């Protein structure tokens, strides 16, 4: 889609593929509105049309949804149309989906925090139901019959007594002149025909027949290709480079120094320009660069965790949440625990390599690529190039995975810088090694967990964490605690445990860190839920029974389901069972993992049961797929790979040193979705955090060995 702001009605219709007249509805404005575009208005009044996100119905009855968020596998490209089709009463396959450009009119466009459905589903339902009622009203007026005698079905309005029909396209002109209903009645969940059903994804066909457009598929006339040799240390500089051999590579045309934005600092590198990606990479290999890495610390992994551990053992840190007096309760308790947990740095390793196509054109910049936050890219490029925001056109393609990495501005900025130097379009492609060694990474974190038990009850909990604060890279205040310090911890615990505190002990190093799937819940959850397991042992209680004591009725139902499907109460000797329950982006997920001893040593994972309570939901098949993927990703981070640093550089360069779980490493997984009337929660990320603690708790149950540092080896347990 083109930029909506400052786009003429004529151009809007042309690019959206609409002709003649259309009913269009804004989805994110505070005041829902409907209007009409017709041919005479277009020709006579080509002024700007400022639109938000839109559902558009043209005179042929075609429905177009302008998707303001990215599709990176999580399924929103399908789920939102499934919602729209329900209340609009059209066929799901009759909705045409196009990506919107970066534009503030859409509101927040960041695809992250599992937010697309949970933040917007009520608006989607209300606006499409309003459109349906307006179309019914138009038909009733046309036929001079009572509104209540008409109903909508499969893109038509039907008069119940006579069977008379009119398709939506015939009604859009009249409907657009109707008043938008202020209090439209929505369907009851029991009456849904599409929502809540495991309908096959509409993007599956596109991805299997090759018609879907990913970033690498973008081609422009006269486009060149670039590969960049970047300083392996974030704050280093280019001292000098020799391009003699690089320029001898057939197809290589130019080599020059560049710098790209990395949060609030810059990374330097040398760009190799060629007439193909292959030639650019070959030229990059032949390039000789000397780096200036003076003036900043060259960190090692062992030093990182040593300093973090000293932090949590010697400093109180910045208080994030506190109730009661946990220090006094712990000091006077008869039974207490004081332990340290550590989680490693992790890379995103999306299967699609980073890439971006840019065309700097003097008075504007246009970019195309796998981008999670097009509005953020607009802001960043506007500031860097001193260009008005509306002159920065950011086009989203499909993403081959993102996990937070593609919500970063460095690679679009880099492409725009190179395009400006070339005065033409360019596509920049990162190798796996580029992606692996440049970051940003999920931060490694150290936790100190203290607790007190009195009379079999948890008297106090005290948590301190020390790790990089992702918010600081974005300009957050450094004298305030990380606002994700308690992420993953279930809210009902605060209601039922008198003494609790969470604190963040600041820690900074020159390694870029960023969100990773489920953000801090992926690390916090390991510490919090492992520690609750330790407290259950100290209290002499069953781990699930202990959690039940401090949780609410909604969580009790989730626990009931976990017990039912896993056979928790019937577990036998020589079987290790572990449980963990975490909250992430308004969804609660519980995992139970079963392990047994492996012939020849170590343990094997026999099965994982997962129960998700995400409240109102759209498609259970998509939920199951996301939870299964989260479990696989969580297993990799727990027992297969980590990012380590030596002399300030990343040691893991590719899959050979950052191994992924293989198909034979994945145990059987059963996923269950709770049904209730609660508001929608996230789906794409909340299934990850419970895996690691449920697994290590199961290993303790089987072997008596408590694992407090990740990753670990299943074979070596």
Automatic annotation (TrEMBL):
Xref: PROSITE patterns: TAT (PS51318)
Coiled-coil region list: none
Domain annotation Aldehyde oxidase/xanthine dehydrogenase a/b hammerhead: ranges: 209-295
Transmembrane segments: none
GO MF annotation, one: oxidoreductase activity
Gene3D superfamilies registered for this protein in UniProt: Aldehyde oxidase/xanthine dehydrogenase, a/b hammerhead (3.90.1170.50), Aldehyde oxidase/xanthine dehydrogenase, molybdopterin binding domain (3.30.365.10)
InterPro entries: Ald_Oxase/Xan_DH_a/b, AldOxase/xan_DH_MoCoBD1, AldOxase/xan_DH_MoCoBD2, AldOxase/xan_DH_Mopterin-bd_sf, N-heterocyclic_Hydroxylase, OxRdtase_Mopterin-bd_su_IorB, TAT_signal
SUPFAM superfamilies xref list: Molybdenum cofactor-binding domain
PANTHER family named among the record's database cross-references: ALDEHYDE DEHYDROGENASE
Name of the protein in question: Xanthine dehydrogenase family protein molybdopterin-binding subunit
